[in-house]
Amino acid sequence: MDRSGDPAVLADLIGSRLTGQAGGLYRRLADAIAALIGSTELPVGARLPAERRLAEALAISRSTVVAAYDELRARGLVESRRGSGTTVARAAGRGRSRADKRMPAGYGESLFHRIAVGPGEVISLTYAVDPGLPELSDELIDLASSDLPALLDDVGYHPRGLAVLRERIADHFSESGLPTSPDEIVVTTGAHQAIALVTQMYLRSGAAVVIEQPSWPGCFDLFGAAGGRVVGVPLDDAGIRPDLLTAAFAEHQPAMLFVMPTFHNPTGRLMSANRRRQVAEIAAKHGVVVVEDNAYSAWDPSGPSIPPPLAAYAPEGSEVLTIGSVSKAVWGGLRIGWIRASRPLAERLARHKALADLGSPVIDQALTARLLPRLAELTAARARVSTVRKKLMGQLLIERLPEWEWSEPEGGSALWIRLPETDARVYAQVALRHGVEVVAGRAMDPTGEHDDYLRVPFAYAEPVLDDAVSRLAAAWQELRRHGPGPGIPVV
What we know:
The chain is an alpha/beta fold. The protein contains 17 helices and 15 strands. It has helices at 7-14, 25-36, 51-58, 62-74, 109-117, 135-146, 148-153, 163-175, 190-202, 217-225, 242-252, 273-286, 343-357, 362-371, 375-400, 424-433, 462-482; strands spanning 78-81, 85-88, 123-124, 185-188, 208-213, 229-236, 239-240, 256-259, 289-293, 320-325, 337-340, 414-418, 436-437, 439-440, 453-457. The strands form 4 sheets. An 8-stranded mixed beta sheet has the order 4-11-10-9-8-5-6-7, with helices on both faces. The chain has a 3-stranded antiparallel beta sheet with strand order 12-15-14, covered by helices on one side. Helix 9 packs parallel to helix 10 and helix 11 (242-252) packs parallel to helix 12. The protein is globular, with a radius of gyration of 24 Å.
């Protein structure tokens, strides 16, 4: 779908292409748009936003956009007609291979863009990552010398997951207060695949799926690709609001409820035990499948205790699927996740998993099986470091950006920050030109209710956090001084 006429969407597509020092800003803007022309993002005939509206979305002067459009017209890439605006010229499509197709932009684009393009001079706060735990190295070396020969003798296809790993995941759930057997576990390639498999199994075109508002950007794209309709329900301090959840179930009759009870992304809130029970009972009453994603479960022992998974509170006969992962707690490169479900549901999920990839990487599973008995210990150490960084980030923001508003999260790896009287997508464009990339609230709530919010991770080394906040403060000062567009000179 062509959404290029929306200035905010085009601004996101342009993204970091405006950074750098080579050439004037208008020329960099022209080059950025030229790079998109002829693709699925800017196909022949696509209408470009009006100069003033694109200038506001990018937080630059209107004269800069006018100059960029003039440059594109001179190159024969766009044409303008009175009353019709500026569109991509037919001649611009010549010479492009029909195979030159780009992935259409989704709500997760800004979050995943830096992963795709790789590191650069820009400090990217689009995702929170830590290096792999040092224990990984020792375990991998020992695995190679002791377990690898037996693994290599095996066929290597395990759609449900290695038996030893499923046993240890089941033990992990049982220890957390949710009795589980190995045949209730399906191993996946990360939590992302777990959500994708559940989506394939439950969502049909036109079906509604209820989520927390705001929520993780990737779920909008996954549910939308399956033809699902996303219905958001706001949160309070204890989690998703039960009164509004009941109303949403009654009105939309959804196929599924997707929640993140443990350190919700992006707010970091921890759903209380009582709220977990309420949600499980409401879903059972309305016959709605519950999918809980507890991938963000690293816990600081000095913080609040974590209740058992929501599934532990579910009435008998209800359907609750619980997703977990080691990618956030141990290392992003260890792409091992899992789904806990009833035996019949686990069998169905295993069939979907077999169709997807025949099974997750065996060596990664074996490594995860070694780490799981120590997972609480390992994640506690990481969570303590995260708590120190969270406090540092808070101090830096209070000192340099006292106008910003946020509540300290109970867990997770990011602050959910409100920018007073400011469109966060506009601010994000200014921040990008100051060398720091952030995700605006629109990516996590397409309704517009959180357009003045930013998700700012603190899972970085202290010098990086210091530098990032300095750049954010400089961008904020520029936006406050000049406003979104007209006062910023042509560069």
